[in-house]
Amino acid sequence: MKYLIAEDEIDLQQSIVTYLERDGNLCEVASNFEEASEKAYLYDYDVIILDINLVSGSGLDILRSLKKEHKDVGVIIISANNSLTDKLEGLDLGADDYITKPFHLAELNARINAILRRGKYGGNDLIEFNEIKIDTRSRTVFIDGNAIVLTKKEYDLLVFFVSNKGRVLSKEMIAEHLWGDNSDLLNNFDFIYVHINNLRKKLTAEGAKYIKTAYGSGYKFIGD
Asked: Response regulatory domain location, by residue (predicted)?
């Protein structure tokens, strides 16, 4: 999964990143209002962890913009304020959850997983597409009941494809999803081709021929 941690308390920000990355997630960070606004607008995330009281602006204004742009992203508001007014305002604006500082990282992680289950997977930890089953808790993939071995990038790529089935994904979108901020450092998209080709071979070997090339545009995951 890909997360944006919009938090100006650097120690807390990095603690969240370290905790979430232990499970193989990709985390980007923003340390002020302007940086958080820009990233939330430009890039796609599965969940944004959004501090209300960012330096130079309110996280609630970013939440308003996300909803105005109809961004499909889960949002957890975090704040030092245990104010009922702030909590209700955040939830009324469309936040999926609200957690007050200080909090245990395990609790934050549990709330993130609950949002992912509700929003993307219909309340389940299991993603299914025809004969493909993805267990998001154990990060394992089965095709017709047989487990297949994927690298971390191949697994992240498959989840990204299945979560966006039927949608053309450009090479830039895939690179940004897999490498986040580091995608700007890539000189070309050869790495993407390698991961897509390897994933395609493993799926095709099991009869799952769903990765299609959208010539001149990118790739699409779609049934025949």
From this structure: 2-116
Q: What is the pLDDT of residues 44-63, one digit of tens each?
A: 899 999 999 898 899 999 99
Final residue before a domain boundary, out of 121, 149, 175:
121
pLDDT tens across 185-200, in order?
Answer: 667 778 888 999 999 9
CB distance 45 to 18 below 8 Å? no
Say whether pTM exceeds 0.90: no
Residues 6 and 104 grouped into a single domain: yes
Structure tokens at 76: 């957890």
Same domain, 114 and 131: no
Q: Can you tell me the distance from the alpha carbon of 183 to that of 181, in angstroms, rounded to the nearest whole number?
A: 5
Structure tokens at 51: 């501090």
